[in-house]
Amino acid sequence: MPMNDPRELFLHELKDVYFAENALVKALPDMISEASDKELAKGLDKHLTETRQQVKNLEKVFRAMGEKAQGEKCPGIEGIKAEHDKFMQEERPSPEIRDMFLTGAAARAEHYEIAAYNGLISMARGLGERECVGLLDENLKQEKAALQLVESIGKRMAKDAKEMAHA
Known about the structure:
The protein is mainly alpha-helical. It has 5 helices and no strands. The longest helix is centred in the C-terminal third of the chain and has 36 residues, at 130-165. The model has no long low-confidence stretch (mean pLDDT 96).
């Protein structure tokens, strides 16, 4: 049956990001334990706490819409996770390379989530769901801050690697 209702699309996208956030709640502890860089591990740990709150915010959005919170398989986040798992198994990277890879994997996840939240916020505005807009915007701001942090860490690591190569 074709989807013709903007509310249905909003709920579909909401289920997608809810699945993604829950997947990250499960994946971030592994990434934290894989990180040897203290700043990276600390940043990932902080974002794990934020991600747990983001899940709660999404559950509030579902309630505001009169719906039960449930996820719908998110191929985007599953692809990012699969790429991580394959790299870690096949490449068995050194700690420095692993940390650099983790910053990239985290940035990819953040970009994905930022795009999802931007779309959801636009749809919530169009639907007149002001409470939902506020909750989704809170999540979006955290995602943008997390992206800024991992990009900053990634730049530092790249600079360090360049200096080591020229030493």
